[in-house]
User: Fold this.
Amino acid sequence: MNEFIFFINIVVISGAVIGSIYALGAIGVTLIFGILRFAHFAHADMMTLGTFLVLVLTALFPAVGPAIGLPTAFVMMPLAMAATAVIAIGIDKAFYKPLRENNVKPVVMVMASVGVTLMLQGLIRFFAGTGSQSLFVDDRKAIFRIDLPFESASRAIVVTEPQILLFLFLAVAVVSLHLFLNKSRLGKAMRAMSDNPDLARVSGINTNTVVGVTWIIAGALACAAGTLLSLDVTLKPDLSFMILLPIFAAAIVGGVGHPYGALAGGFVVGFAETLAVFNWAFLLRPLEQALPWLDLPNNLAFVPTEYKITIPFFILVAILIWRPTGIFKGKVI
Amino acid sequence: MQNAKKEIILFSGLAVLVLWVLVAMGPAFGVRVLAEASCYAILALGLTIQWGYAGLFNAGIMGFVALGGFMAMLFGFPVNEDFWNTDLPAQLGGVGLKALFGIALIYGSTKLYKLGFPGKKLRLTLTLVLSLAVYLWVKTSLDPVASAIESQAGFIGGFGWPIWIGWIVGGSLAGLIAYFIGHICLGLRSDYLAIATLGIAEIIKAFLKNADWLTRGTLTVSPLPWPGPGPAEIGFVAARAVYLSLTAVIIAGLVFLLYRAYNAPWGRTMRAIRDNELSSSAMGKNVNGRRLEVFIFGSVLMGIGGAALITFNGIFDPSGFLPLNHTFLIWVMVILGGAGNNLGTLFGAVFVYVVWTMSEPVALYLLDVMRNLGEAWFAWEAPADLDSRALQARVFVIGLIISLVLRYAPKGLIPEKVAHHT
Assistant:
């Protein structure tokens, strides 16, 4: 039984956590990919930037959280999300819009986004250093232990408060995004522009507004993803490319331009990572007692933790070979 | 005429800059910078044919550099007797044989349809399960051997061969990797190539960093032998000058070959594909085939350039490969100098590298002034890691240059000269 609880703690909960983070990032990436038609390489650093805004706000007003009963950083997150959205629009105006108006090739936009990512990295590292930091300035991380009512279960299922907040936030974000895209006029305009930009333009959709809204959603979600990840572990400023690859993999697995696909893709990549680095010997040990002739090695993980980054890459390669449109039939643009 | 004038001004400016570095910082330092710049120039030539000739976006130059450096180390580093005198090589060979056998098995399983094995899905599942089983089998048999090597011999050492063999092998291996990536991604949208190359670079780095039995991981390997006489034999300046002339010969050869290729039908086809993919495929050109060729060719150059660079540094340090230094700096060289123009690329490589090296002391000096002023005027207590932060700020400058060049000078300082063969 303990082995099972261990499995839940290490695989199910961690996988769901990292999957939700990837999903939040991938929704933004897939929207930008669908509407602006380029792979936004600066997304990971936008996440870090948003998280730093949260950190600054948390350090300024450390007493807010305990008064409400939530981590201060989580209370400050909506403010930082708004700020990141504004910054995202600003970045678009300063760096992407002039290129877009020159009708450059999509690859040049990708290059520009790499330029932006380097600038963000430089600023973040210059002002905040490169060490990891905790978002819990004045409060502590609440941990819940759920004991199972079984004789053989001596361990407890462990969930932390940030993880619960993450799941709640993801649910709220997905439902509101769904309502926005399907019910509101602007959301429908976004989907129209993703399907066919020229047709959207001639039918009177203000493409500039749509682009702005895309950046607002992407920036806010990036900030949320970064903050919730950092609440769960710590804030690492040099995460950049390491988290970019799984997010892109999630967006492509889900099908470019599909927010729900990105959600599913995030969970696929997240669970694939945790399952691959999980040491299966733990789970198979009871089997060893039952079958004395079986001799299992101590480490039965598919991939050592250091090589975790290979998992999203192989998922990406596999999907590009067999189904470049993604599981939900996105676009190949 | 206008262009020729501009080129003369730019190149004489560069010559003045180089002379200034040679005089101000001493010949040993100056020649070092030039030799490193020449290694970067080989890398930049590799990128200029990928990006400038064919419009292919490679975000993983670092991976090819690391691969080239690793091969140079593996072939050039002296033999490790602790390893070869035990039975460990035999064990490692056994694992290698197992791996070969497994690969043969997997390859065989993909050819089962020739025996009339039914069901495409069934065959695919069989291949996947078989690959997973083979992978686990090889991995479980490699792990004890690897840890035995680490504990008994440190790492397997090199082969003790002339290091230029390592350069060539490094280039070929980089080309092989490029073949696989290109094969998968080139038929798709260009963004996917960028994502995939970024991924493969991080994977190669992770592998080299963690495979301690092969590379000593974070312990680093040094000193690497030089292809010419080393500094211990004839002194720093002379040895570096010999190295520089070697790389200069390589560059001259490459530029000559590239010049021929650019004006040959092959080069014209490449440019046609880059400028108008649709009409060149309508003309019957094999778009993806040509692109694959140019991607592989560029990556081979990157492997060789990386090997030359790491050999010159004399130390193989897997954690020293940074996307900034080994990918984006090279981009800046190419897009600032002029993508698709070999002369412009060379100019960009030398200019950017000299500025990059000199920016380190300049940034530190500026920060020092800032810190002193801050202390004097505002009683500001500077953070202790301010120096490392100053170097981080150079990341910002690189990003800014990329953005500015893309916006205001998308063709670079010395633009590509499109020849009209009328």
Summary: The mean pLDDT of chain A is 86.
